[in-house]
UniProtKB/TrEMBL annotation:
Protein name as catalogued: Dynein axonemal assembly factor 3
InterPro entries: DNAAF3 (IPR039304), DNAAF3_C (IPR028235), DUF4470 (IPR027974)
Species annotation: Cyprinodon variegatus (Sheepshead minnow)
Keywords attached to this entry: Cilium biogenesis/degradation, Cytoplasm
Transmembrane segment boundaries: none
Residue intervals of the DUF4470 domain: 15-107
Function: Required for the assembly of axonemal inner and outer dynein arms. Involved in preassembly of dyneins into complexes before their transport into cilia.
Residue ranges annotated for the Dynein assembly factor 3 C-terminal domain, each copy included: 138-419
Amino acid sequence: MSAGRVSEGAGCITWWGFSPARNLLSPEKSEGEINVLLVGSGDPRHILKTIADSSAKQKLHIWVMEQSMEVVARQLLLLYITLIPKETMGINEKTEVFLELFGNAEIRSQTEETLRQAASQLILSVTETVEDAMHACLNTTFLKFKERDELARIFKLWIQQISSSGSSPVVMSKAWDYRVRQHLGTRYDSRKGCFDWDLKMKLHEKGCGVISTKQYMQWREKGLAFEMREGVYQRTNPTLVSTRVFNHKGDKVGFQGYWGDIVSSPYLSFGIETDDESLLRTQNRQHVKTAQDISCSNMQGLFQSLSSRGRCLTTAHSDAEKTPKLNLMQLSGVSVTFLPLDSLQKLPLKQKYCHYFNTIYFSANCVHQLGPMMRQIAAPDAVLVVELAKYILDLNKRQEAGFVEKVASLALEAGFEPWREHAADDVYAVFVPQKK
Protein backbone atom coordinates (compact mmCIF):
# COMPACT_ATOMS: atom_id res chain seq x y z
CA MET A 1 0.00 0.00 0.00
CA SER A 2 1.42 3.41 -0.87
CA ALA A 3 1.74 6.16 1.70
CA GLY A 4 -0.53 8.34 -0.38
CA ARG A 5 -3.57 6.05 0.06
CA VAL A 6 -4.46 6.53 3.71
CA SER A 7 -7.97 5.17 3.06
CA GLU A 8 -6.73 1.58 2.78
CA GLY A 9 -8.17 -0.51 5.60
CA ALA A 10 -5.27 -2.98 5.53
CA GLY A 11 -2.79 -0.20 6.30
CA CYS A 12 0.80 0.06 5.13
CA ILE A 13 2.44 -2.08 7.83
CA THR A 14 1.56 -5.69 8.61
CA TRP A 15 1.22 -6.10 12.37
CA TRP A 16 -0.63 -9.42 11.95
CA GLY A 17 -1.27 -11.72 9.05
CA PHE A 18 -4.39 -12.00 6.93
CA SER A 19 -4.76 -15.75 7.38
CA PRO A 20 -4.76 -18.43 10.12
CA ALA A 21 -1.61 -20.05 11.49
CA ARG A 22 -0.32 -23.04 9.51
CA ASN A 23 2.20 -25.80 10.05
CA LEU A 24 4.51 -25.13 7.10
CA LEU A 25 6.33 -28.47 7.15
CA SER A 26 5.79 -30.81 4.25
CA PRO A 27 4.62 -34.25 5.45
CA GLU A 28 7.01 -35.76 2.90
CA LYS A 29 10.03 -34.19 4.62
CA SER A 30 10.31 -35.56 8.13
CA GLU A 31 14.00 -36.27 8.67
CA GLY A 32 17.23 -34.28 8.76
CA GLU A 33 17.49 -30.52 9.12
CA ILE A 34 14.49 -28.61 7.80
CA ASN A 35 14.88 -24.98 6.68
CA VAL A 36 11.82 -22.76 6.39
CA LEU A 37 11.93 -19.25 4.89
CA LEU A 38 9.17 -16.79 5.83
CA VAL A 39 8.83 -13.65 3.70
CA GLY A 40 6.65 -10.94 5.25
CA SER A 41 4.58 -13.13 7.59
CA GLY A 42 4.05 -10.12 9.90
CA ASP A 43 3.61 -12.10 13.10
CA PRO A 44 4.97 -15.37 14.59
CA ARG A 45 1.81 -17.44 14.04
CA HIS A 46 3.40 -19.78 11.49
CA ILE A 47 6.59 -20.03 13.54
CA LEU A 48 4.70 -21.14 16.66
CA LYS A 49 2.36 -23.50 14.81
CA THR A 50 5.18 -25.11 12.84
CA ILE A 51 7.34 -25.67 15.92
CA ALA A 52 4.42 -26.98 17.99
CA ASP A 53 3.37 -29.48 15.30
CA SER A 54 6.89 -30.71 14.49
CA SER A 55 8.52 -33.75 16.00
CA ALA A 56 10.78 -33.12 18.97
CA LYS A 57 13.42 -35.12 17.09
CA GLN A 58 13.34 -32.81 14.09
CA LYS A 59 16.00 -30.15 13.66
CA LEU A 60 14.09 -27.07 12.54
CA HIS A 61 15.62 -23.79 11.37
CA ILE A 62 13.21 -20.95 10.56
CA TRP A 63 14.48 -17.92 8.66
CA VAL A 64 12.47 -14.70 8.86
CA MET A 65 12.50 -11.77 6.46
CA GLU A 66 10.26 -8.74 7.01
CA GLN A 67 9.65 -5.41 5.31
CA SER A 68 10.37 -3.13 8.27
CA MET A 69 12.35 -3.21 11.50
CA GLU A 70 9.22 -2.28 13.50
CA VAL A 71 7.71 -5.63 12.48
CA VAL A 72 10.96 -7.45 13.31
CA ALA A 73 10.92 -5.81 16.76
CA ARG A 74 7.34 -7.03 17.35
CA GLN A 75 8.22 -10.55 16.20
CA LEU A 76 11.15 -10.64 18.62
CA LEU A 77 8.95 -9.37 21.47
CA LEU A 78 6.20 -11.94 20.88
CA LEU A 79 8.75 -14.75 20.60
CA TYR A 80 10.42 -13.53 23.80
CA ILE A 81 7.09 -13.70 25.67
CA THR A 82 6.45 -17.16 24.21
CA LEU A 83 9.78 -18.37 25.59
CA ILE A 84 9.31 -17.11 29.16
CA PRO A 85 9.43 -20.25 31.35
CA LYS A 86 6.11 -21.25 32.94
CA GLU A 87 7.84 -21.06 36.32
CA THR A 88 8.18 -17.33 35.72
CA MET A 89 4.86 -16.73 33.95
CA GLY A 90 1.99 -19.19 33.91
CA ILE A 91 0.41 -20.21 30.62
CA ASN A 92 -2.87 -18.39 31.30
CA GLU A 93 -1.11 -15.13 32.15
CA LYS A 94 1.23 -15.54 29.16
CA THR A 95 -1.77 -16.00 26.87
CA GLU A 96 -3.38 -12.80 28.15
CA VAL A 97 -0.19 -10.74 27.83
CA PHE A 98 0.63 -12.14 24.39
CA LEU A 99 -2.81 -11.45 22.91
CA GLU A 100 -3.04 -8.04 24.56
CA LEU A 101 0.24 -6.89 23.02
CA PHE A 102 -0.60 -8.68 19.78
CA GLY A 103 -4.00 -7.18 19.03
CA ASN A 104 -4.83 -4.27 21.33
CA ALA A 105 -4.15 -0.62 20.55
CA GLU A 106 -4.27 0.06 24.28
CA ILE A 107 -3.05 -2.18 27.11
CA ARG A 108 -3.14 -2.47 30.91
CA SER A 109 -0.38 -1.11 33.16
CA GLN A 110 0.49 -4.69 34.25
CA THR A 111 1.18 -5.62 30.64
CA GLU A 112 3.32 -2.50 30.28
CA GLU A 113 5.63 -3.81 32.99
CA THR A 114 6.13 -7.11 31.15
CA LEU A 115 6.82 -5.13 27.98
CA ARG A 116 9.39 -2.98 29.77
CA GLN A 117 11.27 -6.02 31.07
CA ALA A 118 11.18 -7.78 27.69
CA ALA A 119 12.34 -4.68 25.80
CA SER A 120 15.25 -4.21 28.23
CA GLN A 121 16.41 -7.78 27.63
CA LEU A 122 15.96 -7.52 23.88
CA ILE A 123 18.14 -4.40 23.78
CA LEU A 124 20.95 -6.49 25.26
CA SER A 125 20.38 -9.29 22.75
CA VAL A 126 20.58 -7.04 19.67
CA THR A 127 23.50 -4.89 20.87
CA GLU A 128 25.69 -7.83 21.91
CA THR A 129 28.68 -7.95 19.56
CA VAL A 130 29.47 -11.66 19.89
CA GLU A 131 29.01 -13.92 16.86
CA ASP A 132 26.62 -16.32 18.60
CA ALA A 133 23.04 -15.29 19.35
CA MET A 134 22.02 -14.90 22.98
CA HIS A 135 19.11 -17.24 22.22
CA ALA A 136 18.69 -19.64 19.29
CA CYS A 137 15.12 -18.44 18.62
CA LEU A 138 16.00 -14.73 18.81
CA ASN A 139 18.96 -14.73 16.45
CA THR A 140 19.65 -11.25 15.05
CA THR A 141 23.34 -11.79 14.29
CA PHE A 142 22.66 -11.94 10.54
CA LEU A 143 21.18 -8.43 10.54
CA LYS A 144 23.27 -5.46 9.46
CA PHE A 145 24.72 -3.32 12.24
CA LYS A 146 22.47 -0.41 11.27
CA GLU A 147 19.43 -2.70 11.46
CA ARG A 148 20.39 -3.91 14.92
CA ASP A 149 20.91 -0.29 15.96
CA GLU A 150 17.43 0.46 14.65
CA LEU A 151 16.00 -2.43 16.70
CA ALA A 152 17.72 -1.08 19.82
CA ARG A 153 16.26 2.36 19.10
CA ILE A 154 12.74 0.88 18.77
CA PHE A 155 13.04 -1.06 22.03
CA LYS A 156 14.31 2.04 23.83
CA LEU A 157 11.42 4.03 22.39
CA TRP A 158 8.96 1.51 23.81
CA ILE A 159 10.54 1.89 27.24
CA GLN A 160 10.54 5.69 27.01
CA GLN A 161 6.85 5.72 26.09
CA ILE A 162 6.07 3.43 29.02
CA SER A 163 8.17 5.55 31.42
CA SER A 164 6.58 8.87 30.46
CA SER A 165 3.91 8.56 33.17
CA GLY A 166 1.21 7.64 30.70
CA SER A 167 1.83 10.61 28.40
CA SER A 168 2.78 8.91 25.16
CA PRO A 169 3.76 11.03 22.14
CA VAL A 170 1.05 9.09 20.29
CA VAL A 171 -2.41 9.04 21.86
CA MET A 172 -3.64 5.78 20.41
CA SER A 173 -7.35 6.59 20.68
CA LYS A 174 -6.82 9.66 18.48
CA ALA A 175 -4.49 7.84 16.07
CA TRP A 176 -7.02 5.03 15.68
CA ASP A 177 -9.92 7.42 15.16
CA TYR A 178 -7.91 9.31 12.53
CA ARG A 179 -7.46 6.11 10.51
CA VAL A 180 -11.16 5.23 10.79
CA ARG A 181 -12.16 8.72 9.62
CA GLN A 182 -9.75 8.57 6.67
CA HIS A 183 -10.94 5.12 5.70
CA LEU A 184 -14.68 5.81 5.87
CA GLY A 185 -14.74 9.45 4.77
CA THR A 186 -18.32 10.65 4.49
CA ARG A 187 -19.55 7.33 5.93
CA TYR A 188 -17.91 8.02 9.29
CA ASP A 189 -21.14 9.14 10.99
CA SER A 190 -22.75 5.85 10.03
CA ARG A 191 -19.64 3.84 10.89
CA LYS A 192 -21.44 1.25 13.03
CA GLY A 193 -23.45 0.23 9.99
CA CYS A 194 -20.21 0.01 7.96
CA PHE A 195 -18.58 -2.12 10.66
CA ASP A 196 -21.62 -4.42 10.78
CA TRP A 197 -21.60 -4.78 6.97
CA ASP A 198 -17.91 -5.75 6.92
CA LEU A 199 -18.54 -8.34 9.61
CA LYS A 200 -21.83 -9.88 8.45
CA MET A 201 -21.49 -9.57 4.68
CA LYS A 202 -17.76 -10.16 4.39
CA LEU A 203 -16.08 -11.94 7.33
CA HIS A 204 -19.08 -14.09 8.25
CA GLU A 205 -19.71 -14.92 4.58
CA LYS A 206 -16.07 -16.03 4.34
CA GLY A 207 -16.58 -18.50 7.18
CA CYS A 208 -15.55 -16.38 10.17
CA GLY A 209 -18.84 -16.66 12.07
CA VAL A 210 -16.97 -17.10 15.35
CA ILE A 211 -16.01 -13.41 15.28
CA SER A 212 -18.70 -11.96 17.53
CA THR A 213 -20.49 -8.74 16.71
CA LYS A 214 -19.78 -7.18 20.11
CA GLN A 215 -16.03 -7.89 20.02
CA TYR A 216 -15.56 -6.94 16.37
CA MET A 217 -17.47 -3.66 16.80
CA GLN A 218 -15.36 -2.79 19.84
CA TRP A 219 -12.16 -3.50 17.90
CA ARG A 220 -13.27 -1.43 14.91
CA GLU A 221 -14.25 1.46 17.19
CA LYS A 222 -11.33 1.44 19.64
CA GLY A 223 -8.71 -1.06 18.45
CA LEU A 224 -9.39 -3.30 21.46
CA ALA A 225 -9.58 -6.91 20.25
CA PHE A 226 -8.84 -8.91 23.41
CA GLU A 227 -10.37 -7.88 26.73
CA MET A 228 -9.96 -10.96 28.87
CA ARG A 229 -10.15 -9.72 32.43
CA GLU A 230 -11.23 -6.77 34.52
CA GLY A 231 -8.77 -3.95 34.01
CA VAL A 232 -8.22 -0.53 32.56
CA TYR A 233 -7.07 -0.58 28.95
CA GLN A 234 -5.88 3.00 28.59
CA ARG A 235 -2.14 2.88 28.02
CA THR A 236 -0.89 3.17 24.44
CA ASN A 237 0.55 -0.09 23.10
CA PRO A 238 3.86 1.30 21.77
CA THR A 239 4.56 -1.86 19.77
CA LEU A 240 1.77 -0.83 17.34
CA VAL A 241 3.20 2.65 16.79
CA SER A 242 5.28 3.26 13.67
CA THR A 243 6.42 6.12 11.46
CA ARG A 244 4.88 6.68 8.04
CA VAL A 245 6.38 9.07 5.52
CA PHE A 246 4.06 11.45 3.64
CA ASN A 247 4.70 14.07 0.99
CA HIS A 248 3.84 17.46 2.46
CA LYS A 249 4.28 20.52 0.23
CA GLY A 250 7.10 18.81 -1.67
CA ASP A 251 8.90 17.61 1.46
CA LYS A 252 8.89 14.13 2.97
CA VAL A 253 7.60 14.23 6.52
CA GLY A 254 7.39 11.32 8.96
CA PHE A 255 4.30 10.98 11.15
CA GLN A 256 4.03 8.61 14.09
CA GLY A 257 0.72 6.85 14.49
CA TYR A 258 -1.15 3.62 13.97
CA TRP A 259 -0.75 2.56 10.35
CA GLY A 260 -1.83 -1.09 10.45
CA ASP A 261 -5.01 -3.01 9.68
CA ILE A 262 -8.31 -1.45 10.86
CA VAL A 263 -10.72 -3.73 8.97
CA SER A 264 -9.81 -7.44 8.88
CA SER A 265 -8.89 -7.83 12.58
CA PRO A 266 -6.20 -9.67 14.58
CA TYR A 267 -8.66 -12.54 15.15
CA LEU A 268 -7.62 -14.10 11.83
CA SER A 269 -4.21 -15.30 13.05
CA PHE A 270 -5.29 -17.50 15.96
CA GLY A 271 -9.06 -17.09 16.38
CA ILE A 272 -11.00 -18.56 13.44
CA GLU A 273 -9.72 -22.15 13.26
CA THR A 274 -9.45 -24.81 15.95
CA ASP A 275 -9.16 -28.58 16.28
CA ASP A 276 -11.53 -28.46 19.28
CA GLU A 277 -14.99 -28.94 17.75
CA SER A 278 -16.69 -27.83 20.98
CA LEU A 279 -15.39 -24.31 20.41
CA LEU A 280 -17.21 -24.19 17.05
CA ARG A 281 -20.57 -25.32 18.44
CA THR A 282 -23.61 -23.26 17.47
CA GLN A 283 -26.95 -22.75 19.18
CA ASN A 284 -29.88 -21.15 17.37
CA ARG A 285 -27.49 -20.55 14.45
CA GLN A 286 -25.24 -18.47 16.69
CA HIS A 287 -21.73 -19.46 17.76
CA VAL A 288 -21.55 -20.18 21.47
CA LYS A 289 -17.84 -19.32 21.66
CA THR A 290 -16.07 -16.33 20.13
CA ALA A 291 -12.87 -15.68 18.19
CA GLN A 292 -11.37 -14.43 21.46
CA ASP A 293 -12.17 -17.76 23.15
CA ILE A 294 -10.60 -19.67 20.26
CA SER A 295 -7.53 -17.39 20.25
CA CYS A 296 -7.03 -18.05 23.97
CA SER A 297 -7.48 -21.79 23.57
CA ASN A 298 -5.10 -21.98 20.60
CA MET A 299 -2.42 -19.90 22.33
CA GLN A 300 -2.66 -21.99 25.49
CA GLY A 301 -2.28 -25.13 23.40
CA LEU A 302 0.73 -23.71 21.54
CA PHE A 303 2.41 -22.56 24.74
CA GLN A 304 1.77 -25.93 26.41
CA SER A 305 3.26 -27.77 23.44
CA LEU A 306 6.32 -25.52 23.37
CA SER A 307 6.81 -25.87 27.13
CA SER A 308 6.91 -29.65 26.82
CA ARG A 309 9.56 -29.31 24.10
CA GLY A 310 11.56 -26.65 25.89
CA ARG A 311 13.97 -26.74 28.76
CA CYS A 312 14.80 -23.80 31.00
CA LEU A 313 18.26 -22.41 30.40
CA THR A 314 20.41 -22.27 33.51
CA THR A 315 23.47 -20.08 33.84
CA ALA A 316 25.57 -22.72 35.55
CA HIS A 317 28.82 -21.51 34.01
CA SER A 318 30.44 -18.65 35.86
CA ASP A 319 33.06 -18.13 33.19
CA ALA A 320 33.04 -14.40 32.47
CA GLU A 321 34.09 -15.09 28.90
CA LYS A 322 30.89 -17.00 28.20
CA THR A 323 28.21 -15.24 26.16
CA PRO A 324 25.53 -13.81 28.47
CA LYS A 325 22.27 -15.67 27.99
CA LEU A 326 18.61 -14.77 28.36
CA ASN A 327 16.65 -16.59 31.05
CA LEU A 328 14.25 -18.18 28.58
CA MET A 329 13.25 -21.66 27.50
CA GLN A 330 15.48 -23.33 24.96
CA LEU A 331 13.48 -25.26 22.38
CA SER A 332 15.29 -28.47 21.53
CA GLY A 333 16.52 -28.51 17.92
CA VAL A 334 14.81 -25.22 16.98
CA SER A 335 16.33 -21.95 15.84
CA VAL A 336 14.79 -18.75 14.44
CA THR A 337 17.04 -16.38 12.51
CA PHE A 338 16.13 -12.90 11.27
CA LEU A 339 17.58 -11.86 7.93
CA PRO A 340 18.27 -8.31 6.63
CA LEU A 341 15.37 -6.52 4.95
CA ASP A 342 17.02 -6.68 1.52
CA SER A 343 18.02 -10.35 1.68
CA LEU A 344 15.64 -11.83 -0.86
CA GLN A 345 17.64 -10.73 -3.91
CA LYS A 346 20.94 -11.68 -2.28
CA LEU A 347 20.23 -15.20 -1.05
CA PRO A 348 20.48 -16.79 -4.55
CA LEU A 349 23.95 -15.26 -4.92
CA LYS A 350 25.31 -17.16 -1.90
CA GLN A 351 26.41 -20.75 -2.31
CA LYS A 352 25.16 -21.66 1.18
CA TYR A 353 21.53 -21.13 0.19
CA CYS A 354 21.64 -23.02 -3.12
CA HIS A 355 18.64 -25.41 -3.07
CA TYR A 356 18.52 -24.84 0.68
CA PHE A 357 14.94 -24.15 1.82
CA ASN A 358 12.43 -26.97 2.23
CA THR A 359 9.51 -24.55 2.62
CA ILE A 360 9.23 -20.97 1.35
CA TYR A 361 6.32 -18.81 2.49
CA PHE A 362 5.19 -15.51 0.98
CA SER A 363 2.57 -13.25 2.51
CA ALA A 364 -0.02 -11.59 0.27
CA ASN A 365 1.68 -8.19 0.51
CA CYS A 366 5.09 -9.63 -0.50
CA VAL A 367 4.01 -11.82 -3.40
CA HIS A 368 5.28 -9.24 -5.91
CA GLN A 369 8.80 -10.27 -4.81
CA LEU A 370 8.25 -13.84 -5.96
CA GLY A 371 10.58 -14.32 -8.91
CA PRO A 372 12.78 -16.88 -10.73
CA MET A 373 15.52 -16.53 -8.12
CA MET A 374 13.31 -18.49 -5.70
CA ARG A 375 13.89 -21.64 -7.73
CA GLN A 376 17.62 -21.37 -6.98
CA ILE A 377 17.16 -21.38 -3.21
CA ALA A 378 14.34 -23.95 -3.12
CA ALA A 379 15.28 -27.54 -2.31
CA PRO A 380 14.34 -30.16 -4.96
CA ASP A 381 11.45 -31.32 -2.75
CA ALA A 382 10.51 -27.81 -1.61
CA VAL A 383 7.00 -26.49 -1.01
CA LEU A 384 6.08 -22.89 -1.86
CA VAL A 385 3.17 -21.52 0.21
CA VAL A 386 1.58 -18.19 -0.77
CA GLU A 387 -1.00 -16.34 1.31
CA LEU A 388 -4.01 -15.31 -0.78
CA ALA A 389 -6.17 -12.20 -0.40
CA LYS A 390 -9.34 -13.86 0.91
CA TYR A 391 -9.36 -11.85 4.15
CA ILE A 392 -8.21 -8.49 2.77
CA LEU A 393 -11.67 -6.97 2.92
CA ASP A 394 -11.06 -3.89 0.76
CA LEU A 395 -10.82 -6.16 -2.28
CA ASN A 396 -13.97 -7.21 -4.13
CA LYS A 397 -14.54 -10.73 -5.47
CA ARG A 398 -13.17 -9.87 -8.90
CA GLN A 399 -9.99 -8.39 -7.43
CA GLU A 400 -9.62 -11.37 -5.11
CA ALA A 401 -9.90 -13.78 -8.06
CA GLY A 402 -7.44 -11.65 -10.03
CA PHE A 403 -4.99 -11.95 -7.14
CA VAL A 404 -5.23 -15.75 -7.25
CA GLU A 405 -4.47 -15.69 -10.98
CA LYS A 406 -1.54 -13.32 -10.43
CA VAL A 407 -0.07 -15.61 -7.77
CA ALA A 408 -0.35 -18.63 -10.09
CA SER A 409 1.31 -16.68 -12.90
CA LEU A 410 4.20 -15.47 -10.72
CA ALA A 411 4.76 -18.97 -9.34
CA LEU A 412 4.84 -20.43 -12.86
CA GLU A 413 7.37 -17.81 -13.98
CA ALA A 414 9.46 -18.64 -10.92
CA GLY A 415 9.53 -22.34 -11.88
CA PHE A 416 6.78 -23.73 -9.63
CA GLU A 417 3.56 -25.57 -10.40
CA PRO A 418 0.46 -26.25 -8.26
CA TRP A 419 0.87 -29.11 -5.82
CA ARG A 420 -1.75 -31.56 -7.05
CA GLU A 421 -1.71 -33.62 -3.88
CA HIS A 422 -2.64 -30.58 -1.80
CA ALA A 423 -6.37 -30.08 -1.23
CA ALA A 424 -7.81 -26.93 -2.83
CA ASP A 425 -7.68 -23.99 -0.45
CA ASP A 426 -8.83 -20.40 -0.95
CA VAL A 427 -6.61 -19.11 1.88
CA TYR A 428 -3.22 -20.39 0.71
CA ALA A 429 -1.90 -21.48 -2.68
CA VAL A 430 0.65 -24.31 -2.51
CA PHE A 431 3.23 -25.05 -5.23
CA VAL A 432 6.15 -27.41 -5.83
CA PRO A 433 9.13 -27.06 -8.21
CA GLN A 434 8.33 -27.91 -11.82
CA LYS A 435 9.56 -31.27 -13.00
CA LYS A 436 12.28 -30.85 -15.61
